[in-house]
Amino acid sequence: MEVELKEMSSDLETLKRSLPDPSHHASIDKMQLRVQHLTNLAESAPVRRSKVKDMSAEVVDSNPYSRLMALQRMGIVQNYERIREFSVAIVGIGGVGSVAAEMLTRCGIGRLLLYDYDKVELANMNRLFFRPEQVGMTKTDAAVQTLSDINPDVALESYTLNITTLQGFETFMSSLKNKTFCPSEEGSGVDLVLSCVDNYEARMVVNQACNELNQTWMESGVSEDAVSGHIQLLVPGETACFACAPPLVVASGVDERTLKREGVCAASLPTTMGYNALKDFFPTMEMKPNPQCSNAACLERQKEYILAKPARDAAAKAKEKEVSAIEGPVHDDNEWNISVVDDSELVTADIRSSDALPEGLVRELPSADEFHKPTSPQETINPVDDLEDLRKQLDALNAD
Amino acid sequence: MEVELKEMSSDLETLKRSLPDPSHHASIDKMQLRVQHLTNLAESAPVRRSKVKDMSAEVVDSNPYSRLMALQRMGIVQNYERIREFSVAIVGIGGVGSVAAEMLTRCGIGRLLLYDYDKVELANMNRLFFRPEQVGMTKTDAAVQTLSDINPDVALESYTLNITTLQGFETFMSSLKNKTFCPSEEGSGVDLVLSCVDNYEARMVVNQACNELNQTWMESGVSEDAVSGHIQLLVPGETACFACAPPLVVASGVDERTLKREGVCAASLPTTMGYNALKDFFPTMEMKPNPQCSNAACLERQKEYILAKPARDAAAKAKEKEVSAIEGPVHDDNEWNISVVDDSELVTADIRSSDALPEGLVRELPSADEFHKPTSPQETINPVDDLEDLRKQLDALNAD
C-alpha cells in the first residue's frame, strides 16, 4: 500500500509540473495532502517484530526469550536454545492443535508442520486461537498468519489437505520424511507428531504413518460433551499403538460416520485440554503393545524393540554409572529448591502385566484371560437355569 | 481510509473535467486506477463480526455459540444463556489473567472488568494472548482490543491502575460496587473476582476488598520456576481468607521487594496454569477460616456465616426435599452417559479439623496446638543435654 501511495504522489507531482495553469495547482496540492494522510494511516498499521538470531538470556523487557531462557538458569532445562533444532508436526488445527501450535511457537520451537483441510468458521470462536476476521480462511493458513506474527523465528509449513485421502496421506508421509530443516536428524524429519484430530479414522491414519516411520507421537481427544478428554503417548514398539487397544468403534469395524446423529453438534469449551473437568480426575496408566496387534508395522516395531533390549539395558547401566561417578549428590546446591521425582514414584499401572488399575478406573470389558477361561462342566450342566439367571441379571441391569 | 480514497477519486474526476487538454486525461485515468486498487486493498482489511442479540443453539457454521449452547442440550448446564448476566473482575492481565479473560470472552460472559497498570513488552510473548504489535500499549487496552474483536457481545471495562495505591484501591472498590450492568444483582456488582497477580501485596489488597464486599474470589499463582502453581477459592466467612493462612513472606512482615534478587527474572511458560507440572501432582484441600485472622473484615464475615447457619441448614433441607419430590431418580434417561459425582467423594482434607493432609503434602511448620504443647518438667531438666541434642540434629540436617 505504501508503495502505491508513493507512486501516486510522484504521478501528482509530474502532472502538476505539466500543467501550465496555476489554478489547477491548488487542487493537486490538496490531493498531495490526502496522499500524505493516507501514507500516515498505512504506516501506523502494526509492524512485525524482527527475527532474532540467537536466543538471549538478557533480562530486558525487549527480549522475547528472557522468561524462557530463565528456565535454563534455574536448572529446569539444560540447554533451552536447543528447542530451535526441533520440528513438531501437528495434525488437526482445531481447539487442541491450534493452542499446542501457539504454545510451541511462543516457546520458540524450530519448525512447525500444520495439517488440516478445514476452514475457519464463526462456530469455532468458542475455542481459543482463531479470530472472527479469519472466517473463510483455511485453518492452516490462518494459523500461519497468527503464528508468524507472534514469532517470526519459527519455520512454519502449512498443509491444507486431508490425511485420510490417498493423495493427502502421500504428502503427509513425504513431509514427515523431509530432512532439509535438520539433515543430521535421526529417524524421520520431525521429532514429535501431535494428533489433535476429532475422529478415529484420522487417528488410525496418524497411527499407520507413525508406526511405518518409527515416529513417537501423542494422541489427544476431547469428549462430545466437552468436559473430559485424554492424552496418550505412543512410542512404536515400546507402548501400545492406537490399533493395539482400539476404542470399540474401531475394533468393531463400524463406520463412525453412521454414528453421527442428525442435527447434533458436539459441545466444546475453551478450557478442556484432556481430563475429566467435572470430577477433577486425571488418572495415568501405561499400556504395553499388543502382540496380536492388527497393524503389521506395529508388530515390526515390537520385534525391533525386543531385539534391542540387551543394548538398551547396557546403555542405561553405563549411563547410571557415569552419572553417579561424575555428579555426586544431585541438587546439592539447589538454590531454587527444585526437587526431582523418580518416575517410579508416580501412580501408574500396567493394565496388561498386572490386574491393578489406577484408582477410580474400572474395566469396561473382561480381560482376554477371563474371556478365554475354561468353564467347568458343572457350570454348564443346566442350560435352562443359566438362561433364567441371565434373564434375572438383565432385568436387574434394566431396573438400575 | 475508504472515505479518503472516495474523496480522492472525486477530486480526480473534477480535475479531469476542468482540464481542456486530453493529453492530461491519460495521466489522471492512471491515477484513478491506482485509487481503485487502493480502495480494494483497504476493503479487504478485516471486518469485525456484528453483535448477536440472542444466543442461538442452531447448528450452523456461522453461529458463534452453537458449540456452547450444545452444553445445555447435553445437560451439562441448565440455561447457558444466563452467562450473559454475569460480571467477572480480573485483577492482573498477565499470563493467567489474559487467558482467563479470553476463555470467558469466548464463552460469551456478560461483562469483564480488567485491572492492570503494566504495559505489554516483548518479554511477555512467551505466554499466550498478547501479540508483538501490541508492545507499548497498556495490558488492559491491548486486552480490550483483542477481546472485543473476538466477541463484540461482551461488555469490556479497562482499568489501567495499580490497586495497591490509595487512589487505585478507591477506583477498584467503586468499580466492583457499580451495579449499572445488572441492577438486580445481590451483593457487589460482580459475580466473581479472579486474582491473577504476581505479588503478595496485590493479593492482600484483593483479599481486603473481597472481605469488605463479602465477595467470592479465586486466587492463582505460578511459581518462580514456572513448573508449578496453585488455585484457591475464597468465600468470605466460609473458607480461609488470604490473611487467615498467609504465606511466610506475609506472615513475617517482610517487604517482598527486598527479596527480589538482582538480575533475576522469573521463568514462565505458556503451559503452566496452576499445578505441579513436573510431578503431575495437583492435590486439593479445604481451608476453614482462622478465628484469629488479622483481617477485621474477615472476622465480621466469619461471625455472619456462623449466625446464618440455622437458616442455611433449613434452606438446604427444603431444597433436598423439593428436588427428590419433583425430579425422581437423577439422569434416568441420560442419553449422553454423563454421571455426576458427589462432592464428598472427592479427595479433600480439612487441615484444621483433622490431622489428615492429602497424599504427598507435608506440613512446613508445626500446628498451633503442637507449638503451644506444654513441655513436661522432665524434658527441660538438663539444658546442656538438650543443646547437645540440638547440635546433633542440626549436624544431621546439614549432612543431608
TrEMBL record, chains A, B:
The organism encoding this protein is: Actinidia chinensis var. chinensis (Chinese soft-hair kiwi)
Q: Which GO terms describe its cellular component?
A: cytosol
Keywords for the protein's UniProt record, in alphabetical order: ATP-binding, Metal-binding, Nucleotide-binding, Ubl conjugation pathway, Zinc
Mind telling me which PROSITE patterns this protein's record contains?
Answer: D_2_HYDROXYACID_DH_1
Keyword Protease present in the record's keywords: the answer is no
SUPFAM superfamilies in UniProt = Activating enzymes of the ubiquitin-like proteins (SSF69572)
Q: Which InterPro entries match?
A: D-isomer_DH_CS1, ThiF/MoeB/HesA, ThiF_NAD_FAD-bd, Ubiquitin-activating_enz
Please name one Pfam family that this protein belongs to.
Answer: ThiF
Q: Which residues cross the membrane?
A: none
Chain segments carrying region Disordered = 367-386
The answer to whether the entry has keyword ATP-binding is: yes
Q: Which family does it belong to?
A: Belongs to the ubiquitin-activating E1 family. UBA5 subfamily.
Outline the extent of the THIF-type NAD/FAD binding fold domain: 65-275
Name a GO molecular-function annotation. ATP binding
Q: What name goes with this protein?
A: Ubiquitin-like modifier-activating enzyme 5
Q: Which GO terms describe its biological process?
A: protein ufmylation
